[in-house]
């Protein structure tokens, strides 16, 4: 950025103001400097991100579509126009982080299959108008890896407490993996939910389809339709509760009987969970 600042200082000189071609040249060079700086920061990150793993355990991870049974009374509260039509039997996309004695591995911070989509969505939803189409600005996130082992063997010489985590608006389980990893390294089994209420940038569903962030709700707020906006957020919250309760119940049940989805990964939590020690946790909308 030093050449860029030098060029901006040159623009203040009197003789530069008097010559349009010099001003034009400085402008072009300034733009080139900015793009080069952005490209170099993305391709060659100056600082390696250090994840928080401050406990005594190594950490394992499984990403799975958890089969659940939704409580009918909770389903009836949800507005299908906001969250879509839901059935009693379904699946919740989750990431489970847990203590293991297996050696540390390396897992991408963002799911490689969805990483570019996630970055594009986050820029589209959160960046100022000139930058909304530049998903590549978050490319550094795609280069980062977590020191955890996929499908590791859970510790089996003790039962571990449970933590169920609900992400905030424009979040998902991947983005909050640092927090989950820290808790798992201290001895907790952490269930992180990818909510399908339209609050996550990208959610892969059980049938392989992709659910995107619900931008219509934000438009209601911008249009100052406050009551309709509040009702829509309320319906999202109701669906989150249904997902949260059903996922919690399913996790507790894993202490008694394994499911096919985990059997295929070679992972079992049977008799390894302390179901009397459960913590509910979330961030922002969660």
From TrEMBL:
The chain crosses the membrane at residues 20-44. PANTHER family: PLATELET-ACTIVATING FACTOR ACETYLHYDROLASE. Keywords: Hydrolase, Lipid degradation, Lipid metabolism, Membrane, Transmembrane, Transmembrane helix. InterPro entries: AB_hydrolase_fold (IPR029058). Pfam families: PAF-AH_p_II. One of its GO terms (molecular function) is 1-alkyl-2-acetylglycerophosphocholine esterase activity. This is 1-alkyl-2-acetylglycerophosphocholine esterase. SUPFAM superfamilies: alpha/beta-Hydrolases (SSF53474). The keyword Glycosyltransferase does not apply. Its EC number is 3.1.1.47. GO terms for biological process: lipid catabolic process.
């Amino acid at each position: 950025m030093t050449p860029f600042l030098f060029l901006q200082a040159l623009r203040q000189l009197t003789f530069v103001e008097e010559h349009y071609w010099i001003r034009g040249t400085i402008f072009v060079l300034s733009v080139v400097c900015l793009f080069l700086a952005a490209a170099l920061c993305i391709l060659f990150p100056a600082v390696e991100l250090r994840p928080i793993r401050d406990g005594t355990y190594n950490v394992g991870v499984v990403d799975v579509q958890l089969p659940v049974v939704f409580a009918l009374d909770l389903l009836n509260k949800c507005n299908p126009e906001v969250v879509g039509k839901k059935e009693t039997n379904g699946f919740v996309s989750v990431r489970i982080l847990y203590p293991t004695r297996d050696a540390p591995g390396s897992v991408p911070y963002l799911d490689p299959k969805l990483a570019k989509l996630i970055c594009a969505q986050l820029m589209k939803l959160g960046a100022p108008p000139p930058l909304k189409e530049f998903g590549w600005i978050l490319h550094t996130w795609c280069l980062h890896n977590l020191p955890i082992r996929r499908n590791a063997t859970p510790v089996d010489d003790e039962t571990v407490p449970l933590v169920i985590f609900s992400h905030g608006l424009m979040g998902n389980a991947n983005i909050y993996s640092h927090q989950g990893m820290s808790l798992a390294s201290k001895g907790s089994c952490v269930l992180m939910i990818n909510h399908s209420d339209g609050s996550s940038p990208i959610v892969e569903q059980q049938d392989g389809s992709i659910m995107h962030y619900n931008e219509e709700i934000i438009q209601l707020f911008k249009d100052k339709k406050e009551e309709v906006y509040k009702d829509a957020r309320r319906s999202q919250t109701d669906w989150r509760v249904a997902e949260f309760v059903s996922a919690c119940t399913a996790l507790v049940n894993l202490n008694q009987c394994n499911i096919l989805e985990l059997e295929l990964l070679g992972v079992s939590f049977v008799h390894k969970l302390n179901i009397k020690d459960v913590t509910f946790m979330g961030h922002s909308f969660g």
